[in-house]
UniProtKB/TrEMBL annotation:
EC number, as in UniProt: 1.5.1.5, 3.5.4.9
HAMAP family: THF_DHG_CYH
Pathway: One-carbon metabolism; tetrahydrofolate interconversion
Classification of source organism: Bacteria, Pseudomonadati, Thermodesulfobacteriota, Desulfovibrionia, Desulfovibrionales
Summary of subunit composition and partner proteins: Homodimer.
Protein name: Bifunctional protein FolD
Function comment: Catalyzes the oxidation of 5,10-methylenetetrahydrofolate to 5,10-methenyltetrahydrofolate and then the hydrolysis of 5,10-methenyltetrahydrofolate to 10-formyltetrahydrofolate.
């Protein structure tokens, strides 16, 4: 069994980015800039935001944090996004989700300038992904693709099964795996899938993005499959993935651990997207 080490891979990507960010800074006279908006005091969101700001510091990207109180009005938050859109030194805008109750996240996301949409959730970004046009891709599925590439996991003609159809993970994941050049044959499963175990057992590559600890068991995996576990579930025993890692580790060809698999890649890809957004905005990349 090959352990797919997302933590080490993310570290390698960060090192690569450091050099690229420094070179871009020399050329532009400024480093790429990322605005991070955290509304309210949600503890999990605070940890995510802290990690993202730390990743910016490590790679040389300038981060600017904006922390409106949970009582901020929809109009005030929309004004903030408009100001960030207009700031020439900001290349990326990230609004940490979920937003407090009473705020309309979709309206906020729709307002972000697609050129600065480093989370890849804007309808324009999703549309470009669907059409196979260049653009900013959602970070978690992009991180999975990067792991498959860097670990030389063959995808052409392979059967990939994605469990979970959310807009931020499952759906874009299925599109990325099916795109020309990657060429997997993709099945997208969800809570209404009739015989999930039978679908999963067909998978050469299984991506689990469900949100239920240890939900995918060893008997649902075929011998020699590659298992990518996106799940991050808090349990009494700590963080658990969606897949029963210990039961299936001797059966699979390769697997990502939780923690230390897909999670660190998500943040690394946010940095990659910020650099790419900066390059595109400055006319250095199509
Ligand atoms: P959502 O809750 O938005 O989506 C979960 C999906 O799983 C839905 O499509 C749902 O189906 C499907 N599902 C739920 N129960 C079943 C079931 N019994 N059988 C089959 N499918 C089922 O979650 P997210 O996509 O946002 O996140 C998924 C997991 O990934 C979570 O653990 C989350 O914490 C983690 N995550 C990790 C990230 C990382 O960086 N590593 C980033 C983002 C998320 P239906 O649509 O029918 O309801």
């Amino acid at each position: 069994m090959k352990l797919i080490d997302g933590k080490a891979t993310a570290q390698t990507i960060r090192e690569e980015l450091k050099t690229e960010v420094a070179a871009l800074k020399d050329r532009l006279g400024r480093a790429p800039g990322l605005a991070v908006v955290l509304v309210g005091e949600d503890p999990a969101s605070q940890v995510y935001v802290r990690n993202k700001i730390k990743a910016c510091e490590d790679t040389g990207i300038v981060s600017k944090a904006f922390r409106p109180e949970a009582s901020v009005s929809q109009a005030e938050l929309e004004d903030l996004v408009r100001r960030l859109n207009a700031d020439p030194e900001l290349d990326g805008i990230l609004v940490q989700l979920p937003l407090p109750r009473g705020l309309d996240s979709q309206r906020i996301l729709d307002l972000i300038d697609p050129a600065k949409d480093v989370d890849g959730f804007h309808p324009v970004s999703m549309g470009r992904l669907t059409l196979g046009l260049p653009g900013l891709r959602p970070c978690t599925p992009a991180g999975v693709m990067e792991l498959l590439r860097r670990y030389d996991i063959p995808t052409k003609g392979k059967k990939a099964v994605v469990v979970g159809r959310s807009n931020i993970v499952g759906k874009p994941m299925a599109l990325l795996l099916a795109q020309p050049g990657v060429d997997a044959t993709v099945t997208l499963c969800h809570s209404r899938t009739r015989d999930l175990a039978a679908e999963c057992r067909q998978a050469d590559i299984l991506v689990a993005a469900i949100g239920k600890a240890n939900f995918i068991t060893a008997d649902m995996i075929k011998d020699g499959a590659v298992v990518i576990d996106v799940g991050m579930n808090r349990t009494e025993k700590g963080l658990a993935g969606d897949c029963d890692f210990h039961a299936m580790k001797d059966k699979v060809a390769a697997i990502t651990p939780v923690p230390g698999g897909v999670g660190p890649m998500t943040i690394a890809m946010l940095m990659v997207n910020t650099l790419a957004a900066c390059r595109r905005r400055m006319g250095l990349e199509s």
